[in-house]
Design goal:
Keywords: Cell shape, Cell wall biogenesis/degradation, Hydrolase, Peptidoglycan synthesis, Signal. GO terms for molecular function: serine-type D-Ala-D-Ala carboxypeptidase activity. This is Peptidase S11 D-alanyl-D-alanine carboxypeptidase A N-terminal domain-containing protein. The chain is an alpha+beta fold and about 350 residues long. The chain folds into 2 domains: about 50 residues; about 280 residues, Beta-lactamase (3-Layer(aba) Sandwich). It is built from 11 helices and 10 strands. The strands form 3 sheets. A 6-stranded mixed sheet has the order 1-3-2-10-9-8, with helices on both faces. The chain has a two-stranded antiparallel ribbon with strand order 4-5. Strand 8 and strand 9 form a beta hairpin. The N terminus is likely disordered.
Length: about 350
């Protein structure tokens, strides 16, 4: 009996010692990882800081009118803003955080250019190649420059490319810095209702923004990153086959390009929770307007509403005649695409 008691006591002591030391070791490993990540982020953060840039939104009093009745009743949120002055001409739920879908990729592009050069080469991983659509079908082992990746990210909204960019930046810095960098950049920009937990814009409790924050981010991206501004205004980009990768045909899914006068991008999105989303920049008679629509029920409604908001904005600011984009005009454009929904 005494032998059994001694054996049991010894076993208990052994278990307690194991738990104690494993706990200490476990905590040490975790603390070590946190310290390492913090050190890396201290090196990354200066690259994300906002320099020589100021912009704010000025909320104006605007009454709902018959012209914007449908979008007001049905959209989750929207805003149309003077690009230069920051004056908000029309808005709904401008500061409410909502799912934004692939509008997230605007920040993905910004942070990528903060942390890498446009001619840096990224290699496709198996994980990136298996990303869910929308995707361009990258193949493991292929190599693309960051500029080529940004073409695919911003035009075709490629989720596989977004993952590839994140992986490439994380690998470059030897630490998972990319998502943290996206959120730090949002803080530096003063985006108070924005959070990111993936580079694609997949639905999740920690991936959201507001129409006001999307205006602020888009305006910053278009002003401070000439490459982004040049890419988003393109209707199509060919990446020809070369020794590093196959040919890619990249179509811009912005339905207002070539339909609404002088539209210059910016980005569209689509998920179950976000619905259809868009940011559009247009210029008429020397005035530039940015509009955001969140929570449209279809691509057609998304583009009709964005065009309507642009019409209202240009009419209010300059008394310009409304373009009056119609369904037939948009469907003709959509028919040039391989698919739309």
């Amino acid at each position: 009996m005494k032998a059994k008691i001694k054996l049991n006591i010894s076993a208990v002591i052994l278990i307690l010692l194991t738990v104690f030391f494993n706990g200490k070791i476990g905590r040490h490993v975790i603390l070590s990882e946190i310290s390492y990540n913090a050190d890396v982020m201290r090196a990354v953060n200066p690259k994300l800081e906002i320099k020589n840039y100021q912009y704010q939104l000025n909320k104006l009093d605007s009454q709902q009118t018959a012209a914007d009745n449908e979008v007001y009743q049905q959209a989750s949120a929207y805003a149309v803003v003077d690009f230069d002055s920051g004056d908000v001409i029309k808005s709904k739920n401008i500061n409410i955080p909502l799912p934004i879908a692939s509008l997230t990729k605007i920040m993905t592009a910004v942070v990528a250019l903060d942390l890498a050069q446009s001619d840096e080469i990224f290699t496709v991983s198996v994980k990136a190649s298996k990303a869910v659509p929308t995707k361009i079908g990258i193949i493991p082992g292929q190599k693309l420059t960051l500029e080529e990746l940004l073409d695919a990210l911003l035009l075709t909204s490629a989720n596989d490319v977004a993952e590839m960019i994140k992986e490439g930046i994380d690998s470059k810095y030897g630490s998972p810095v990319f998502i943290k960098a996206m959120n730090n950049k949002a803080k530096f920009l003063g985006l108070l209702n924005t959070s990111f937990d993936n580079p694609q814009g997949f639905d999740g409790p920690d991936n959201y923004s507001s129409s006001a924050d999307m205006i602020l981010l888009s305006r910053y991206a278009l002003t401070k990153y000439p490459l982004i501004a040049a890419i988003v205004k393109k209707d199509y980009q060919l990446l020809p086959k070369n020794k590093n990768h196959k040919q890619y045909d990249l179509y811009n899914w912005n339905g207002l390009l070539g339909v609404y006068p002088e539209v210059q991008g910016v980005k569209i999105g689509n998920t179950d929770k976000a619905g259809k989303t868009t940011v559009v920049l247009a210029r008429r008679n020397g005035v530039k307007l940015l509009t955001v629509v969140l929570g449209a029920p279809s691509v057609l409604k998304r583009d009709l509403w964005a065009a309507k908001l642009l019409d209202i904005g240009f009419n209010n600011l300059k008394g310009l005649q409304m373009v009056g984009v119609g369904e037939d005009m948009l469907k003709e454009k959509y028919n040039t695409w391989k698919y739309w929904n």
